[in-house]
Amino acid sequence: MLLEIIAASLEDVRDLNRTGADRIELCGEMDKDGLTPEYDLIREAVQESEIPVNVMIRPHDDAFSYTDREIGQMIEDINFVKKSGANGIVLGVITDEHVVDTASLKKLVDAAGDMEITFHKAFDEIEDQIAALEVLSQYPQIRTVLTSGGAGSSADNTEQLKKLVSRGKELGITVMPGGGINMGNVSEIVDTAAPDAIHFGTGVREDGSFGSRVLGEKIAELKDIL
């Protein structure tokens, strides 16, 4: 199973390379649930990391719908990430009606080229998630959907995650549970949903916050569970 963990600093990137994560989601401003990182951090993280780095592309935390100008900024950021040599990007665009914004998504996907794309937890605001998954599967670069299965944490939505994982496998897209996962509930989520990938944020940190270090012993324990 692929284990993806959030890094919010270069120190996190170094820790995750030492402790054996399979992939890094690189984010800035975790107090806003993760925005596009500073360019210097992107450059240094990709240069130092021996494991794949996927970079968050999110210009603000106001909503997951964006103006043309904001889409333009996201394309500029994607171009920088691509030049940096990162493995992929993480993004999500929905309309004010809470469906996938296919017009904006196509522009972003085209800018990404061959990079892998994860559609992030904007997905949790979509009511018909199975239909959304089918829309996203039409874009070959979108290989992963990060979701809690709806409002609340992944532990609140295990049955929905199970349905999404199953349909995702049929469509050739990986549904990766993430959001509110910790050492106490990960076994239930894995046993119920049977995912091929899982996403951790604060659940592997010393005091459960992004202000503390990633703990190698927690990741070792997690790998035993997975």
Measure the end-to-end span: 7 Å
For the secondary structure, the number of strands is: 8
The order of strands across the largest sheet is 7-6-5-4-3-2-1-8
SS content category = alpha/beta
Can you tell me the overall shape? globular
**Average residue pLDDT:** 96
The low-pLDDT segments are: none
> What is the helical fraction, as a range of percent?
25-40%
What Rg do the Cα atoms give? Answer: 16 Å
Strand content: 15-25%
Instruction: Give the number of helices.
Output: 8
SSE succession: EHEHEHEHEHEHEHEH
For the largest beta-sheet, the strand count, sense and barrel status come to: 8 strands, parallel
Subcellular location: Cytoplasm
Keywords: Cytoplasm
InterPro entries: CutC-like, CutC-like_dom_sf
GO molecular function, one term: copper ion binding
Describe the structure.
The protein has 226 residues and is α/β, with parallel strands linked by helices. It has 8 helices and 8 strands; from the N terminus they run E-H-E-H-E-H-E-H-E-H-E-H-E-H-E-H. It has an 8-stranded parallel beta sheet. It is globular and about 45 Å long.
